[in-house]
Amino acid sequence: MAHPTQLGFQNAASPIMEELLHFHDHALMVVFLISALVLYIISLMLSTKLTHTSSMDAQEVEMVWTILPAIILILIALPSLQILYLMDEVNNPHLTIKAIGHQWYWSYEYTDYENLTFDSYMVPTYDLSPGNFRLLEVDHRIVVPLDSPIRVLISAEDVLHSWAVPALGIKTDAVPGRLNQTIMITSYPGLFYGQCSEICGSNHSFMPIVIESTPLKYFETWSKMMINS
């Protein structure tokens, strides 16, 4: 999760987030090189009075500064489109979870199980256990199996919400009357925190999301316990 004075992204916990981080570094390097070139040309123009008579009417120069930006845009667009299609691709999920936003809590339904539904509220500060995070801990976490493609169906009951977990590269709007879907795969076990990312009322800041990624045998034990409780 994020920590104080952090300037970059959180560590990637899913293949999609790893691709997003690689694309971010790729695009940032392109922007850095362009900025350095422009700064160099400006410094040359300000520091020298030498001119070339042919530079006022040069078809070759005009061709270069037309074609080169188009090539740069293609180099940025192609990996961006690839990641966009990967984020929309949902193939053979092992599990389906339905997340419904309310004012101001989340409710979850494991649609592959008959009676596995629960509400997830933020734990108040005075009820926190040692080691829990203020404004991020919930009374019921989402537990998912490790290294399994999981489809998440996202909707809302009342107003617009947004189901966002930065470490997994997920941010999907929850719209009343509409069902959006996304895919997530956790690369390693742990706790991944998120929050509602759409201003949805006075308690918008108090709708945390906690995903607990565990090996399959522990997930099966948890699901049996939740169904029997």
UniProtKB/TrEMBL annotation:
Gene3D superfamilies from the UniProt entry: 1.10.287.90, Cupredoxins - blue copper proteins
All residue ranges annotated as the Cytochrome oxidase subunit II transmembrane region profile domain in the record: 1-91
Cofactor note: Binds a copper A center.
Localization (cell): Mitochondrion inner membrane
Biological process terms in GO annotation: ATP synthesis coupled electron transport
Topology in the lipid bilayer: Multi-pass membrane protein
Catalyzed chemical reaction(s): 4 Fe(II)-[cytochrome c] + O2 + 8 H(+)(in) = 4 Fe(III)-[cytochrome c] + 2 H2O + 4 H(+)(out)
Annotated SUPFAM superfamilies: Cupredoxins, Cytochrome c oxidase subunit II-like, transmembrane region
Residue ranges annotated for the Cytochrome oxidase subunit II copper A binding domain, each copy included: 92-225
Entry keywords, A to Z: Copper, Electron transport, Magnesium, Membrane, Metal-binding, Mitochondrion, Mitochondrion inner membrane, Respiratory chain, Translocase, Transmembrane, Transmembrane helix, Transport
A GO term from the CC aspect: mitochondrial inner membrane
UniProt family annotation: Belongs to the cytochrome c oxidase subunit 2 family.
Name of the protein described by the UniProt record: Cytochrome c oxidase subunit 2
Organism: Takydromus sexlineatus
